[in-house]
C-alpha cells in the first residue's frame, strides 16, 4: 500500500514557468527525519531550493519532504500525521451538477499536484508558502452521501455511505456536519497548509460553497528526541493501537478491495471511508481528575502509554488480568478495552486525528478537543460497532462530547494523468 513512486518521477520535476522553487529530487539532501517520514508513510523525499536567483537556500528535512499525488491510495491516509491540518467541507452551489463537479475535481487535483510537489500556482499565487518546500503537504478528497443525488450519480453511491446511526451521547451540529465534498489538508508547516486551504477554497469558485471548516494540529516533527506516537490534549499517548501497514490484514481493513465491488461502484476500488467527528474535550473536568483515575479511564499509563497490565507502549494489554483485590487491572469500562478489536469482532480503523483549539467559550472553558478522523474499508466494520459500544459504557464519555460528524467516500489515488474521482465522474 505504500507509495513506491520515485522522487525522480515526472510529476516531481519542475514544469517550466510554473515553479518558483526548483525540485532537485535528491533524497540525500532531505536528511534523516525526512527519510524516516518517507519510509513510514510512503512519502517520497525531495530537496528544494529557492530559484529566484538569490542562491540556493537549503531546506530542512521537514520542508523538503514530499508526499506523492499519483498513488494507489490517496495521500493523507497512511501519511505520518502532520503538524497542521485543515478540514473543509463544501456543498455544490444551487444549479451545479455533475459537469461543474467534474471541472472542480479537475481544478482541485491540479492544485493538489502542484502544491504537494512544492510548486507555486500559475497566475495569482498568494505567495503565502513562498520559500518553503512541500513540507509533507497532502490534500485528500472525499464525497459525502448528498453528492450523489446532486450529480445524478445515485446508482453509484455505495451503501457504506448510508448515514451513521444516532448515538445517545451525540450533540451534533448539523451545520458543521457532513457535506457534498470534503477536503483534508495536512502539512508540517502552518503557512504551507493555509496556502493550500485558500487555494482549495478559491478554486471552488461558483461551483461549491463552504459548508464548514475546522483547523487542527499535532506535534511538530523534531519536537521530541526521536519520533513518537503523538499525544492528545488530555495528555495521553494516542495512536498506539492503530493497525500497522506491516500487518497482513492492514489493507483489507483500511482500503476497499480492488475487485468484487457491486456494479457501478468499481470507482471506490483502492479507496477508503473517512469518519470525521469533532469531539470536544471537557478539559476542566478532566484535569481535576487525579492521574491514577485518568489512567484508569483509558487503561494505559499517561507517562508512556503502556497498558496498566505492564510492559511498554507496544506491549499487548492483558485484558483478563486481575489485581490482588480480584478486580480487573484494565477496568471493564476502560476506553482502550472497549475499543479494542478483540472486543468488537475484529472491528478496526486507522485513527489519524488532529487536535483543535478554537479559543475560550463564553463559559470560560476551552473549546478544544480532537478532530477525530478514522479510515476504514467499511464503516460498519470499523467506526460504527466500536462507537456503539463506547456509547454504552466508555469511562471516557464523561469527559468528551461529539459535536459534529461526517462520513465521506474517499476514492483511490488518481493514476498518472487522472484527476481524483475521475472513475466516478466519467465512469
Ligand atoms: C469509535 C471510535 C473511537 C472514538 C470516537 C475515540 C475517541 C477518543 N479516543 C481517545 C483516546 C484514546 N483512544 C485510544 C485507543 C483507541 N480508541 C479507539 C477508538 C475510538 N476512540 C480505538 C479503536 C483504540 C485502539 C484500541 C486498541 O487497539 O486496543 C487510546 C489508547 C492508545 C491508543 O491505542 O491509541 C487513547 C489514549 C480520545 C481522547 C477520544 C476522544 C476525544
Ligand atoms: Fe480512542
Q: Your description of this structure?
A:
The chain is an alpha+beta fold and 427 residues long. The protein has one domain (59-220, 230-426). It has eleven helices and 13 strands. The protein has helices at 31-41, 61-64, 98-116, 145-150, 190-204, 250-254, 283-288, 291-298, 335-338, 383-393, 422-425; strands at residues 21-23, 44-45, 48-50, 65-66, 84-92, 138-144, 181-187, 208-217, 272-281, 350-351, 354-360, 366-376, 400-410. Strands 5, 6, 7, 8, 9, 10, 11, 12 and 13 form a nine-stranded antiparallel beta sheet that branches. A hairpin with a 5-residue loop joins strand 11 and strand 12 (366-376). Helix 3 runs antiparallel to helix 5. It starts with 20 loop residues before the first strand and ends with a helix. It binds ligand L6N33NVT and fe (ii) ion. Fe (ii) ion is lined by residues 335, 339. It is found in: Cell envelope. Its EC number is 1.11.1.-. One of its GO terms (biological process) is iron import into cell. Keywords: Heme, Iron, Lyase, Metal-binding, Oxidoreductase, Peroxidase, Signal.
- Give the biggest beta sheet: 9 strands, antiparallel
Fraction of helical residues: 10-25%
Structural class: alpha+beta
Strand content: 15-25%
Residue windows where pLDDT falls under 50 for at least 5 positions: 1-56
The end-to-end span amounts to 24 Å
- Give Rg in angstroms: 22 Å
Number of DSSP strands?
13
In round numbers, the mean pLDDT is: 88
**Which distinct ligands sit in these coordinates?**
ligand L6N33NVT, fe (ii) ion
Number of helices: 11
Which overall shape is indicated by the principal axes computed on the Cα atoms? globular
